[in-house]
């Protein structure tokens, strides 16, 4: 069973909007709605769990739960940071498995999870399929983009200390896909303090020595973070 975890608990302060960016409407639909529609239409996704604050659940229920049909698995509470929000959803999925909520799941090893940001509305079914297709024989999959610019390191923030080899550097994207049980254990092992220092979804897996394979990402699958990003999506 492939379960998508949609992270929609962020506040989007860098955008400067009155509401979190994932709930801003563009062309008559909330940004998160674009993600949920794509996941719902994907043959590779069996279940969808949304991480969001309670105050936004009524709006999602009104506009989006219907499009998810039988794939919607419920909500999870956001944590103090991104990785604790992910762990919150993982714990809820684990509880569902323990309570035998889904007949098709007999053990944790029957589940894969996909982590995606509600603020990446340009997700495609093709990228979702590529992630799960490439998971075979690995513990996880991350879409990446090659670096186009030369990368410099500055130790004092004023002068250049050295350059890095561009061909060895990649920009990670979401969605990231993992074998559920191994990924859950990797995240749990970072409690209570180390998990607060995690920035990327794959970081716990890499720290645990899991086999994470890279696949080509999608230039259009950008995250809406700034006002300029939002304007780009409106075009």
What would you say this structure looks like, in words?
A hairpin with a 2-residue loop joins β2 and β3. The protein contains eight helices and twelve strands. The chain has 235 residues and is an alpha/beta fold. The model has no long low-confidence stretch (mean pLDDT 94). Strands 1, 4, 5, 6, 7, 10, 11 and 12 form an eight-stranded mixed beta sheet that branches. Strands 2-3 form a two-stranded antiparallel ribbon. It has one domain: Spore Coat Polysaccharide Biosynthesis Protein SpsA, Chain A, CATH 3.90.550.10.
- Say what the CATH topology is: Spore Coat Polysaccharide Biosynthesis Protein SpsA, Chain A
Number of helices: 8
Order of helices and strands: EEEHEHHEHEHEEEEEHHEH
For the secondary structure, the number of strands is 12
What labels would you give this structure?
235 residues, alpha/beta, Spore Coat Polysaccharide Biosynthesis Protein SpsA, Chain A, 8-stranded mixed β-sheet, two-stranded antiparallel ribbon
Brief summary of the model shown:
The protein has one domain: Spore Coat Polysaccharide Biosynthesis Protein SpsA, Chain A (Alpha-Beta Complex). By secondary structure, the chain is α/β, with parallel strands linked by helices.
Give the topology.
Elements: E1 2-7, E2 25-26, E3 29-30, H1 31-41, E4 47-51, H2 57-63, H3 65-68, E5 72-76, H4 82-98, E6 112-117, H5 125-133, E7 140-146, E8 151-153, E9 162-164, E10 170-172, E11 176-179, H6 180-188, H7 203-207, E12 212-216, H8 227-234
Parallel strand pairs: 1-4, 1-6, 4-5, 7-12
Antiparallel strand pairs: 2-3, 6-11, 7-10, 7-11, 8-9
Helix pairs in contact: 4-6
